[in-house]
Specification:
This protein is α/β, with parallel strands linked by helices. 36% of the residues lie in helices and 24% in strands. The protein is built from 14 helices and 16 strands. The chain has helices at residues 14-25, 27-34, 65-69, 86-97, 107-124, 140-147, 162-174, 178-187, 196-199, 202-216, 235-243, 305-320, 361-371, 400-411; strands at 5-10, 38-44, 60-61, 76-79, 101-104, 128-129, 153-159, 226-227, 246-257, 260-271, 283-290, 294-301, 349-356, 376-381, 388-395, 421-425. The strands form two sheets. Strands 7, 8, 9, 10, 11, 12, 13, 14, 15 and 16 form a ten-stranded mixed β-sheet that branches. Strands 3-2-1-4-5-6 form a six-stranded parallel β-sheet, sandwiched between helices. It is elongated. Bound molecules: NADP nicotinamide-adenine-dinucleotide phosphate and L-homoserine.
Length: 428
């Protein structure tokens, strides 16, 4: 029998316990598939005496994840605690320094320290694998790094935060507002300990920055992601967008342009009949476009015990099989520091305006748009509410700069009664 692959697992929460369960329940399958047993030598978490619903008595216990990461009987350090700094970073660095391979689900750690950790790993001949860090159970890192390795990637986009997609799709389905659905998601245990990571777009931004690095051969640049969360999305926007044939999604888009790398994670409109438009609930979807393959759409569970542990096991099996490649698909030293695109690629925009119901109001608005170089594609006016006329506009593709000039001019008129809402419409 071949030598077992011996794991040290730090973090026994949702993901960690999911990993332990698969290793316990699928031992024979894992041995058959990798040609060697996959075993657990030692574990760590904050609290030792906690009933975690599985038998952990056969594994050595370490209070300190750094000590766990350095143990002689550990070949692969599995970091499932979370956090961009603190014990997750210290123990990962310690594992690499001690010559261990690392598997992690921690997107925050890699989004902020991915380049340094990749350089450390590759200098020592180790690998870091992190399939579970992006879109949970969807094997998107593998798809980009392996299956699509022969393509120049032109664009990566997707819905990468299940909590936000749950809130947005439930707003449309139930007619309830953002705050009520935020509370519902919280009761269901969907939200991160710091909810702003989810609804502020940060968690999804971390994920997008990792995909960008693999797709475009660039150093991870989370600070270069233009971020906006879903907090300002109102029920009115959801209903009105639906009426115009769109759905609102927290959408990540990364593309290399002649102006530099564009990375955006923000609420956008997508056609309701597109695969992204039809994505319901907590599910994730990643769309990858390559010069040879065209468009590839991956869909699946982006979170939860089973799906996330499934992705962690995929990485562990690769290491057990001796299958190794650089952290971001090409040597870390060859990743470029791409300039950030200072402006987004032109796109159509959806505008919702509250206009005073008086002669010439609409003429003022259309003339402001015309003067700013923004062309109107579609327009709809709804029944007046008191003396206010709600007006929806869809523009032709325009730059954000031109649009902002028009929006400022509109706010300075005496006919616009509230701050106009503008949402980008993404071509998908
Ligand atoms: P979790 O349920 O909160 O579990 C975290 C675990 O880490 C707990 O067992 C905790 O110990 C342990 N821990 C925390 N700080 C520690 C420390 N200083 N020293 C030792 N142990 C410590 O988290 P999770 O949902 O499993 O997430 C783990 C990682 O997977 C995170 O990076 C997360 O972003 C990522 N991820 C999660 C999901 C998901 O669906 N949950 C999906 C994709 C990626 P105690 O149990 O004793 O408190
Ligand atoms: N909080 C994340 C989400 C799950 O809602 O998608 C972990 O990536």
């Amino acid at each position: 029998m071949s030598q077992p692959l011996r794991l040290g697992i730090a973090g026994l929460g949702t993901v960690g316990i999911g990993v332990v369960k698969i290793i316990q329940h699928q031992a024979d399958l894992l041995t058959m598939r990798t040609g060697r047993p996959v075993t657990i030598s030692a574990i760590s978490a904050r609290t030792r005496n906690k009933d975690r619903g599985v038998d952990l008595s056969g594994y050595a216990w370490e209070d300190d994840p750094v000590a766990l990461a350095k143990r002689d009987d550990v070949d692969v350090y599995v970091e499932l605690m979370g956090g961009s700094n603190g014990p997750a970073k210290a123990s990962t660095e310690a594992a690499l320094a001690a010559g261990k391979d690392v598997v992690t689900a921690n997107k925050a750690l890699l989004a902020l320290h991915g380049q340094a950790l990749a350089e450390q790993a590759e200098a020592g001949g180790q690998v870091i694998r992190y399939e579970a860090a992006v879109a949970g159970g969807i094997p998107v890192i593998k798809a980009l790094t392996e299956g699509l390795a022969g393509n120049a990637i032109t664009r990566v986009m997707g819905v990468m935060n299940g909590t936000c997609n749950y809130i947005l799709t439930r707003m449309e389905a139930t007619g309830q507002g953002y705050n009520a659905l935020f509370d519902e998601a919280n009761k269901l245990g969907y939200l991160e300990a710091d909810p702003n990571l989810d609804v502020g777009g940060i968690d999804a931004g971390h994920k997008l920055s990792l995909l960008s690095s693999i797709a475009f051969g660039t150093q991870v640049d989370f600070d270069g992601v233009e971020l906006e969360g879903i907090q300002r999305i109102s029920l009115e926007d959801i209903k009105d967008a639906a009426d115009m044939g769109y759905r609102v999604k927290l959408l990540g888009v990364a593309q290399m342009t002649d102006r530099g790398l564009e990375q955006r994670m923000s609420p956008c409109l997508v056609p309701a009949d597109s695969p992204l438009g039809q994505l319901e609930g907590g599910t994730n979807m990643v769309v990858i476009e390559g010069d040879s393959v065209g468009q590839v759409v991956l869909r699946g569970a982006g979170a939860g015990e089973g799906p996330t542990a499934s992705a962690v096991l995929g990485d562990i099996c690769d290491i057990a099989r001796g299958y190794r490649y650089p952290v971001f698909g090409q040597p870390a030293a060859s990743l470029t520091a791409a300039p950030r695109a200072k402006s987004a690629t032109p796109a159509p925009y959806y505008l919702r305006l509250a206009l005073q119901d008086k002669p010439g109001a609409l003429a003022k608005i259309t003339s402001i748009l015309g003067e700013a170089g923004v062309s109107i594609h579609r327009m709809r006016q709804y029944d007046h509410q008191d003396d206010i006329a709600p007006v929806l506009l869809v523009t032709h593709a325009t730059t954000r700069t031109e649009l902002d000039v028009a929006l400022t001019a509109m706010e300075n008129t005496d006919v616009v009664t509230a701050k106009p809402v503008a949402l980008r419409i993404e071509t998908v």
